[in-house]
C-alpha cells in the first residue's frame, strides 16, 4: 500500500513557500487549507472582481479550485500559465471572501503561494526593482525618491509625459504615480518631519514605523501620527525608511521578506528588551506584522520571537480619541473605506467604525455588503488588474450616498481614491483616519 503524502504546489522549490498557514481554526498546510473550500458560493457575491466579470475563474472558489487542481497535478501549469496569471493578478487580496466564508478560507494567501510558484512579476520590472531597494539599499532608495520628487517639482516629469517617454513599454507606471501622488508638501512640513526623524528621544515609550507614503509623499500624515502620540503622553522614536518585509511578501521573494522581518524583530528587541509598542499608520503593514509568526513555522525559536513581537504591534486607532474634538466638523457625511490586505475584520476596523460613529453620529454612512473598497497596496500598478473598474465602483457608491469624506486606513488607498474622486466626483475627498481632526 503506498504511503500517503500531502501534495505541494511547487515541490521543487520549497524555500519559496510558507510551510503552513495560520488560520482561525489552527495551522494548516496550503493543500489542506485549499481543500477545505466546499464551493458553497458564499464568497461570490462578496468578491468585487466576480461581480464585475461574472466569471467563475475570477471568483474566490474558482481561484481555490485552480490552486487545488494545480497542486494535485490534474491541471498542467505550463499549459495553463496564462489562465493562472490572469486569475492571480485580478485578485485584490482584500479578504472579502474570507470574511464571507464560514470556514474562513484564506484565499489571499493561496494566491500569494500561486504567485511564488509562477515566479511571474506582477509589477513593472523597473518599479519592482526600485521598491526592492528600500529593503536592500535604503540610503540609495532615499536618494532616488528625493531625486524623483525634485524632478517632479521642477516639471521634468510633466515634460517626459508630454514627449511620450512614459508611453514606452514598462514606463506607464510613472504616469499613474504622477497622477496619484499629492503636490509637493510645504517646506515647513518637510522640515518638521526631518527634525522629528533626526531627534529621537533618549528613552522612547513608543516606536513609530511610518509607511512608505507617510515617509516620503505624505509627511503631513506622519506629523499627524506623531501629534497623536504626543497627546497620549508618548515619546515616539521614528524608524524612518525601514522596510517591514511586506512588499517582498506580496510581490517578491519570501526569503527576502523573512530576512527583513528578522532584522526588524532584532532591532525591536534591542530597544528596552522588545517591550515597547511598535506603531504603524498602514493597516496593511499592521496585518502583515501581526501574522509574522506564520513566516517562521519551520523555526520554533524564531516563531516564538515573532509571536512576542506581534503582540507589541499597534495601529493608529489605538491612539485616536473616541471623543470628538470641539472644533471638528460633524456636518459632512463620512464613511470608512475598509480596503486592506488579507482581511477586512478585526479590532482596527471595529475601532475605526466606532470612532467615526461617535464623531459623526447619523452622518456616518454604513458601507453596503457589495460596496467596493479601494484596492490596497499598489494593486493599481499590477499588470492585468481591474483596478480602474474597482475604483469606479467605489466612486459610484460614494456619489450614491452623497458622502463628503471617505476615511481610509492606509495612506496609499487615500491617494488612489482621491485621484478618481477628483476626476469623477469632486464633491468628495479621501483622507487617512489619522487626520480625523486635521
Strand-helix topology:
Blueprint: E1 21-23, E2 26-28, H1 30-35, H2 48-53, H3 60-72, H4 81-89, H5 96-100, H6 107-118, H7 125-136, H8 138-154, H9 156-162, H10 172-180, H11 187-198, E3 206-209, H12 212-216, H13 219-231, E4 236-238, H14 246-251, H15 254-269, E5 278-280, H16 283-290, H17 300-310, E6 313-315, E7 334-336, H18 347-360, E8 364-365, H19 387-400, E9 405-408, H20 411-424, E10 429-432
Parallel strand pairs: 3-4, 3-5, 5-6, 7-8, 7-9, 9-10
Antiparallel strand pairs: 1-2
Helix pairs in contact: 3-6, 4-6, 7-8, 11-13, 15-17, 19-20
**Average pLDDT:** 89
Largest sheet strand order: 4-3-5-6
Sequence of secondary-structure elements: EEHHHHHHHHHHHEHHEHHEHHEEHEHEHE
Unreliable stretches covering 5 or more consecutive residues:
none
Q: Percent helix among the residues?
A: 40-55%
Structural class: alpha/beta
Q: List the domain count as a whole number.
A: 3
Note the main sheet: 4 strands, parallel
Q: What overall form do the CA principal axes indicate?
A: globular
Task: Give the count of helical stretches.
Answer: 20
Radius of gyration computed on alpha carbons: 22 Å
Assembly state? single chain
Number of strands: 10
First and last CA, distance: 69 Å
Sheet-strand content, in percent, reads 5-15%
Amino acid at each position: 500500500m503506498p504511503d500517503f503524502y500531502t501534495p505541494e504546489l511547487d515541490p521543487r522549490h520549497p524555500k519559496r513557500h510558507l510551510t503552513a498557514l495560520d488560520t482561525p481554526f489552527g495551522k494548516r498546510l496550503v493543500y489542506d487549507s485549499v481543500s477545505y473550500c466546499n464551493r458553497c458560493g458564499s464568497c461570490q457575491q462578496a468578491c468585487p472582481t466576480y461581480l464585475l466579470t461574472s466569471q467563475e475563474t475570477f471568483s474566490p472558489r474558482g481561484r481555490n479550485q485552480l490552486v487545488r487542481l494545480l497542486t494535485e497535478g490534474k491541471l498542467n501549469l505550463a499549459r495553463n500559465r496564462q489562465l493562472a496569471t490572469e486569475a492571480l493578478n485580478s485578485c485584490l487580496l482584500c479578504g472579502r471572501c474570507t470574511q464571507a466564508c464560514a470556514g474562513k478560507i484564506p484565499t489571499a494567501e493561496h494566491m500569494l503561494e500561486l504567485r511564488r510558484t509562477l515566479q511571474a512579476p506582477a509589477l513593472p520590472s523597473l518599479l519592482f526593482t526600485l521598491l526592492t531597494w528600500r529593503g536592500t539599499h535604503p540610503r540609495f532608495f532615499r536618494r532616488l525618491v528625493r531625486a524623483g520628487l525634485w524632478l517632479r517639482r521642477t516639471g521634468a516629469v510633466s515634460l517626459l509625459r508630454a514627449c511620450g517617454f512614459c508611453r514606452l513599454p514598462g514606463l506607464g507606471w510613472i504616469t499613474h504615480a504622477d497622477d496619484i501622488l499629492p503636490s509637493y508638501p510645504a517646506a515647513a512640513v518637510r522640515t518638521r518631519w526631518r527634525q522629528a526623524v533626526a531627534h529621537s528621544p533618549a528613552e522612547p515609550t513608543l516606536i513609530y514605523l511610518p509607511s512608505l507614503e507617510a515617509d516620503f509623499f505624505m509627511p503631513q500624515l506622519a506629523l499627524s501620527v506623531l501629534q497623536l502620540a504626543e497627546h497620549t503622553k508618548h515619546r515616539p522614536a521614528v524608524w524612518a525608511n525601514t522596510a517591514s518585509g511586506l512588499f517582498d511578501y506580496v510581490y517578491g521573494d519570501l526569503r527576502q521578506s523573512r530576512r527583513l522581518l528578522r532584522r526588524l524583530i532584532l532591532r525591536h528587541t534591542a530597544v528596552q528588551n522588545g517591550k515597547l509598542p511598535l506603531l504603524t499608520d498602514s493597516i496593511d503593514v499592521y496585518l502583515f506584522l501581526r501574522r509574522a509568526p506564520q513566516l517562521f513555522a519551520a523555526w520554533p525559536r524564531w516563531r516564538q520571537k515573532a509571536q512576542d513581537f506581534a503582540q507589541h504591534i499597534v495601529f493608529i486607532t489605538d491612539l485616536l480619541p473616541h471623543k470628538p474634538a470641539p472644533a471638528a466638523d460633524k456636518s459632512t457625511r463620512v464613511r470608512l473605506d475598509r480596503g486592506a490586505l488579507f482581511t477586512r475584520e478585526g479590532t482596527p476596523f471595529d475601532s475605526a467604525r466606532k470612532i467615526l460613529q461617535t464623531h459623526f453620529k447619523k452622518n456616518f454612512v454604513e458601507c453596503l455588503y457589495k460596496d467596493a473598497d479601494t484596492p490596497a497596496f499598489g494593486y493599481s500598478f499590477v499588470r492585468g488588474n481591474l483596478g480602474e473598474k474597482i475604483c469606479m465602483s467605489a466612486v459610484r457608491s460614494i456619489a450614491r450616498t452623497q458622502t463628503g469624506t471617505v476615511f481610509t486606513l492606509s495612506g496609499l488607498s487615500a491617494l488612489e481614491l482621491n485621484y478618481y474622486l477628483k476626476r469623477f466626483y469632486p464633491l468628495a475627498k479621501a483622507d487617512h483616519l489619522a487626520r480625523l481632526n486635521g
